[in-house]
């Protein structure tokens, strides 16, 4: 049976839904509480360590790529400037960088309440799941080193 076009539909506000449903509820289930209740300590450390290692390894690779791109771009700019292809007004660059720093400081001092809420929720999650969190940190550091 087909419903008529006159039927009304409920509109779901996804932003409100996302505020009410934390990401860990989607991963671990509603009212999951600490992971300690679900898995052994060894399993938690292994899970945290493996995910931390993967994150650290990716962070390392992406960081190297970003550093290479920025450094290579700066090197090419210097070569082009030295060869006479490009004239760079370094005083203007310095002025613009200082202006951007001031704007960033102003914005950082006026941190949005959502950021503070996210930090508080993350801190609470880490406190409730300290074993997995410590495994993640250890794995992350190993991933950076590999």
TrEMBL record:
Listed Pfam families: FUN14
Bilayer topology term: Multi-pass membrane protein
Keywords recorded for this protein, A-Z: Autophagy, Membrane, Mitochondrion, Mitochondrion outer membrane, Transmembrane, Transmembrane helix
GO terms for cellular component: mitochondrial outer membrane
Gene Ontology annotations of biological process type: autophagy of mitochondrion
Subcellular location: Mitochondrion outer membrane
InterPro entries linked: FUN14 (IPR007014)
Key word Lipid metabolism present: no
Family per record: Belongs to the FUN14 family.
Protein name, UniProt field: FUND1 protein
Source organism (scientific name): Calonectris borealis
Organism lineage string: Eukaryota, Metazoa, Chordata, Craniata, Vertebrata
